[in-house]
Design a protein that fits this description.
Elements lengths: L2 H7 L2 E2 L5 H6 L9 H4 L1 H14 L3 E3 L7 H4 L8 H16 L4 E7 L11 H17 L4 E7 L2 H14 L4 E5 L13 H10 L4 E5 L4 H8 L9 E5 L5 E4 L2 E4 L5 H11 L2 E4 L7 H11 L19 E2 L7 H5 L4 E5 L9 H13 L3 E4 L11 H10 L4 E6 L5 H13 L4 E5 L20 H11 L12 E2 L3 E6 L6 H14 L3 E6 L3 H10 L7 E5 L5 H10 L7 H8 L5 H22 L2 E5 L5 H15 L11
Parallel strand pairs: 1-10, 2-3, 3-4, 4-5, 5-6, 6-7, 7-10, 11-16, 12-13, 12-20, 13-14, 14-15, 15-17, 17-18, 18-19, 19-20
Antiparallel strand pairs: 8-9
Helix pairs in contact: 4-6, 4-12, 6-7, 7-8, 10-11, 11-12, 14-23, 19-22, 20-21, 22-23
Length: 613
Amino acid sequence: MDLLTALKERILIADGAMGTILYSHGVDPSFEELNLTHPAQIQQIHEAYIHAGADVIQTNTYGANYIKLARYGLEEQVKKINQKAVRIAKKASNGRAYILGSIGGIHGTKTIVESEEEIRRSFREQLYCLLLEGVDGLLLETYYNFDELVTVLNIAREETDLPIITNVSMHETGVLENGMPLSRALKELEELGADVVGVNCRFGPSQMIRSLESVPLLDHAVLAAYPNASLPSYRDGVLYYKNEPSYFETCAVDLRNQGARLIGGCCGTTPEHISALARGRKGLKPLTNKAVVPEKINILSQRKKEEQTLADKAKSQKTIIVELDTPRHLDLSEYIQGAKALKKAGADAITLADNSLASPRISNMAVATILQKHDIKPLVHLTCRDRNLIGLQSHLMGLHTLGLTEILAITGDPTKIGDFPGATSVFDVNSFKLIELIKKSNNGISFSGNTLREKTAFQVAAAFNPNVKNIEKAVKRLERKVQSGADYILTQPIYSPEAIVELKQATAHIDVPIFIGVMPLTSAKNAEFLHNEVPGIRLTDEVRERMKATGSNRVESTIESIAISKELIDVALEHFNGIYLITPFMRYDICVELVKYIHEKTGITIKAEEVTT
């Protein structure tokens, strides 16, 4: 009897975790390499699950794809590892259990840099290896990213008529990472050709049962459930799960009552858990009718959008952003004085870095809130370096609550260059993903897929470094940021008029405003430091020579610096609407003069009463 026929007639018990058992024995990843080095150990685990009552087992190939194996230098072993895994499972089964070829999601809960084409290629390679070895079906499991699952399901369905099980994973009960209700996701998977649809990982039985309450019985596909043993705990540097296998006996009944016909275990489960599921299944027949709990409808409120964003203004007129970084001490008097002076001169917004050069400063969110009280528009930087996903989500919710809507999403300077070189950089996400997550909140959806109950209204800027040898390659990266949702662009400081013209030509097809970075120099030493030691900044020989000619005379250095900046501004204004002035060492007096110069050039008059005292 084939797998699908068996599922129509009865409830099948699947196996439990492979990695958990290996981890408990002191094995570090890659677990899949053990197919080659310790096949007997893998076979014993399969046999233990079959002995416990599993009707279905999965191959030890969850992460046996090119992308994941490359982390361990095993990328050239994809065929051997998958081939051996199926043969081990067949030997262990000896006809007693159905064998599913396991292919795990690549995105998982971490940001990846691989393109969709790389994921497709990696999936196809592993898929062909498993199909050639003659599995009874495919198990696509632990897919947090629904788009990735749809992509690989389409590939698999084109290549085989074997049964395909698709299991999504969720951060929040009943809703996927992208905000889609579980019921709709499983229905879509059924329509795309999945034979069994369900949920695995992340949740223990209780949350998984609640998630399935709103899922009706489907027309063709049957439901699967692979809960974790419990929520994980952390003790003495080790992740562990509460071990109460007998609890799973009752859970088998509850999962069956939600319509599940394929019931197994995920992280933390052992043969004892599977034995309990098998006991709980005794006497149960597949559910044929189900009362569905209606999904909760979330009503999203939305704050009134401000009349004109920085991106909106820059699309039609000259716009000036001035960076004025918060101090590295607690005296804000000079800072507020400088911000007021820049506003009075005509700056459209003050942008505040997020611990620039990896050195601690007063929180830009706190200072931005103070600026708002003075009717000064803030643009806050947000780095990927200092906060994990939890911190980023919380921080964005705080920014929204305070009415701070303009954000520059950046990677952040490495900690090694700052005051605390031993500090840990987080980088849960990169700048591309951060932009996407910020935009996701504009739809009222949190990072985990849960409702925020209110749509945010963030405008997101992205950083761009044109000071590279290959401008075309840099522009490709910029295009990805725009595709991720960037509303406008701020460039690194440019010190060459020719580079500004070249940038205009290279970005003519970019349809979001670009603000050209201009950072006045303070001395010849400052010029040499920036040119030789600061990543992403290059000065022309002419600029360096002009600053060198001023010697150590501060007044002459300032005069020459302003002259150089004005020349760059003149060229920038010919080709772009946005100017991004970066204040050096709190010398806001220089930027005040440049802001006034820009307004004189463009003929815009600033009213003094626009500044709140």
